[in-house]
Amino acid sequence: MKSHLFLCGVPRSGTTALTDLLSGHTSAAIGIERYKKYVNIRRVHQLTPDVFERERFFTFDDSETNLGPERASSFAKHYADLDERFDDATVVGDKVPTYYYIYHHLLGTFPNCKVVCILRNPFEVASSWNRRAKNSADRWAPEEDARRALLRWNEALMICERALVQFPQDFLIVEHARLFGGDVTYFEWLSREVGLPAGSADMERYNEACAGWQAAKDKPLDLDETERRVIVARANFALYERLTGTAIQPPVASS
């Protein structure tokens, strides 16, 4: 029997990078927002193990996702790769940033299931929301800015806290900077926990992901001084540290 894996986190927290890292494993078949439209109270009951059977998984419908193979060449390649190894895969699943809202349904419905939620520094998340909100060519909604990001970030932490109490073995939290900062032991722990023990090819992919993060991590934050102060005052840093073991130092304001 295949096990199930669901990847999530506040948007712009590294869910795509996490998916790329794990879905490259030869024993994994993880969709990219394959069932994103089921993440609401009216349709969540439709998200059941049978949707991860081969024929169902590769039959795309606009009522389930807007990110099928026809959307872009990158999606077409991703699903072509999954198609080749799906039958032999031991872990099947999906990445939708908002899956943490329905963790109770996922862990109560799917056998042999793990939910992994990636958490990231709120200054970086808020900056990324701002950058996309200001880009008129982006489909991102202009009102989804740094302040909205902070609300979602705090909310996600509280949901994660509840999930860990209810499902301490099956709801996993991953800290973005620690994972992509090159902590090999941390990556190996995560790989084992989700049933995808890392081999040499996985370590190579991990090192590439870490190199990419190192190159991007010093990008200036797209936050004004008021936004920085709001995050300092209202972000639940204490809960973040309890959940991840990582303390966050506010960035130095640019002069």
Protein architecture, described:
The protein is an alpha/beta fold. The protein has a domain at 3-125 and 165-218: 3-Layer(aba) Sandwich (Rossmann fold). The protein contains eleven helices and five strands. The chain has helices at residues 15-23, 54-57, 73-85, 103-109, 122-133, 146-166, 176-180, 184-193, 200-216, 225-234, 237-244; strands at residues 3-8, 28-32, 91-95, 113-119, 171-175. A five-stranded parallel sheet has the order 2-3-1-4-5, with helices on both faces. α5 crosses α6. The model has no long low-confidence stretch (mean pLDDT 95).
Task: Describe, in short, the structure shown.
Helices cover 45% and strands 11% of the residues. The chain has 255 residues and is α/β, with parallel strands linked by helices. The protein has a domain at 3-125 and 165-218: 3-Layer(aba) Sandwich (Rossmann fold), CATH 3.40.50.
Number of strands: 5
Span from first to last CA? 57 Å
Proportion of beta-strand residues: 5-15%
CATH superfamily of the domain at 3-125 and 165-218: P-loop containing nucleotide triphosphate hydrolases
CATH architecture of the domain at 3-125 and 165-218: 3-Layer(aba) Sandwich
Number of helices: 11
Largest sheet features:
5 strands, parallel
If strands are numbered along the chain, what order do they take across the biggest sheet?
2-3-1-4-5
Radius of gyration: 18 Å
Tertiary shape: globular
